[in-house]
Amino acid sequence: MKKTALTIICLLLVVSRLAGAEPAKTKKGKQSSKTPTAASPQDNAASGTEVPGKRENAPAPANDRLTDKGDGTVLDKTTGLIWMKDANISTLPVPFDGARQYLQEMNSGKRPNFGYSDWRLPTINEMETLMDKNRFYPALPVGHPFVNVQNQYYWSTSMGKDVVDYFWIMDVASGEMMMDYVSACSYKFFWPVRSSWMPTTAKASTVMTGGQNEY
Predict the structure, then answer these.
(1) Of 142, 124, 93, 150, nearest to 213 (Cα)?
(2) How far apart are CA 214 and CA 203, in angstroms?
(3) N or C: which end of the chain has fewer CB within 10 A?
(4) Prior bond to 138 cis, omega within 30?
(5) pLDDT (tens digit, 9 = 90+) per residue, 13-52?
(6) In the beta sheet, which residues pair with residue 181?
């Protein structure tokens, strides 16, 4: 009888030990059920996950008036003018004679001319048609396709009436024009343009004149 009772006690001890060891085995073999913490914005950015409330602004819609022709030029459907897409083709500002020399080299093939040989400086009226004075830095229409636009002064071929050696220049940052004395020390950017066709929608005051003086 005593032997039987001892046997039962031993069995109970073994069972209790096995029962106590099972949680340890479960803890070792399974991952922790600890509640995960929220990822930081930096972690989300690194993983490409969108962060609520942090969406980037949608890109400006393409401008229907200004068409990127895909050959380094932009067509203005309103005026029929074809502008260089790169508004800083010379990289640095140049004197007036330097701008004309650069264009001569483009038209002769010494510099890239994008398949055309009739590039010229625009008149001040032509530049004015490109500006949007409701905008600043630069004063260009929303969604324009131009690149390397400088918020600086640009040359035109328009001279002032009865004023010697003064030309109209355009402040592309604001769309305002002014006159400037042409000298070897006067440096401006320039924006090559060429004529394509005479638009029927052009206003009388902005009809193109093939680069002749407007003022």
Answers:
(1) 124
(2) 14
(3) N
(4) yes
(5) 544 554 554 444 444 444 444 544 555 545 554 454 444 4
(6) 166
